[in-house]
Amino acid sequence: MSVNTAFGVYVHWPFCAAKCPYCDFNSHVHHGKFDEDSFVTAYVKEIETTARRAPERLVESIFFGGGTPSLMKPQSVGVILDAIAKNWQVADKVEITLEANPTSVEAERFRGYRAAGVNRVSLGVQSLRPEPLARLGRLHSVEDAVAAVRLAQSIFDRSSFDIIYARPDQTLGQWEEELTEALALSEGHLSLYQLTIESGTRYFDLFNAGKLKMPSEDLSADMFEMTQDLTASYGLPAYEISNHARPGQESRHNMIYWRYGEYAGIGPGAHGRLIMGGARHATAAEKMPFKWWEKVIETGDGLTTDDTLTWDEEGDEYLVMGLRLREGIDPARYQALARRALTATQIDFLKGIGFIETLPNGRLRVTDKGWPVLDAVVADLAA
Q: Can you list the alpha helix ranges (DSSP code H) found in the chain?
């Protein structure tokens, strides 16, 4: 049985220059004066507290997400990385990723981030067409995006960028043309997400008011299928439902999540999964940035949630995360986590309709036919 021992650190920077209409992440536009150094002091303090609770870990991946971490000063990134290295052991080949927006102002900081220790960037390009960029609320142009991707590729060993598809009024032909351009621009990793309407966003309000026309389910399914075929033909097959890479270029940090490893969440609204006292804990921090800051300065961390997961919850989370991967899940690990085996009748039923398959190594994975209905497959297996 394979047990994942990888450990990662997720650092959430909550601030953005503008709130995108489709975004439901914990991101905030802050107006007025802001003492970044004082804020970074709280990150260092929370790292120290978390390392005391979960000591003796080998950090294999660090990920700065947001919000927009590329609004941070490079020296702030350096201070946080130093704090992680001081409190945990860091692997020689650690992957250190920073999410960035491709505006020219932020791209100018790339060399500073590289000097601070960042060795991989993930760029929020979202579209290679001007009109959709404007509709998605992005502050960069297509030219900015292409220039930032090329600059990142020249500075960092590894880089990735995101594109959103199945957008309002988008046709299959338009997406094929845009994806072909994205593949030509990519050097090893692409994240391709279908646009979803999330509660609490401006797009949610527009959609419910009938002012946003989304592609039909059939068209979205056709777009997904074409995406799988085209990316594979360019040598960037899907290794996860929305992520495509050349072999060896996969996001090591996200693989920790999907393989149900351990990770510490640092910063406002950050989530973590830590094994303490033989039990897996689900942690979450205060979402509001300045409330989080006050809580950390007062108590040492910003935690609002620290729940011990039940065996059933661990099994369910392993299914939800692991079945997103092309490599699938290990049924023996599921049994060790959930203290019960997957139901043979459910497996046989899903195999019978062609939604899952058993690989020669015994792992269970979702098929190409099953991927578009992944949520339903997971729910069936977890029942």
A: 36-53, 74-87, 104-107, 110-116, 130-135, 142-155, 172-185, 202-208, 217-233, 252-258, 289-299, 311-322, 331-338, 344-352, 374-382
Nearby residues of 247 by Cβ (< 8 Å), 6 or more positions away: none
In this prediction the pTM is: 0.94
CA–CA separation, 191 vs 243, rounded Å? Answer: 5
- Burial track 7-30 (b if 16+ CB lie within 10 A, e otherwise): bbbbbbbbbbeeebebbeebbbee
For residue range 68-122, what is the model confidence (pLDDT) as tens digits? 899 999 999 999 999 999 999 999 999 999 999 998 778 889 999 999 999 999 9
Cβ(160)–Cβ(100) below 8 Å:
no
Q: For residues 21 and 137, is the Cβ–Cβ distance under 8 A?
A: yes
Burial class (CB in 10 A: 0-12, 13-18, 19+), 172: middle
Single-letter code of the amino acid located at 321: M
Residues ≥6 apart with Cβ < 8 Å to 276: 53, 54
Closest C-alpha to 19, from 28, 11, 10: 28
CA 5 from centroid of its chain's CA atoms: 19
At residue 198, what is the residue type? Answer: E
Of 89, 87, 9, nearest to 48 by C-alpha is 87
Rg (CA), the chain: 21
Per-residue three-class SS string for 140-158: CCHHHHHHHHHHHHHHCCE
d(Cα 59, Cα 11) in Å, to the nearest integer? 13
pLDDT tens by residue, 277-326: 999 999 999 999 999 999 999 999 999 999 999 999 999 999 999 999 99
| Spatial CB neighbours of 14, under 8 Å, sequence gap ≥ 6 | 26, 27, 28, 66, 67, 267, 268, 269, 287, 289
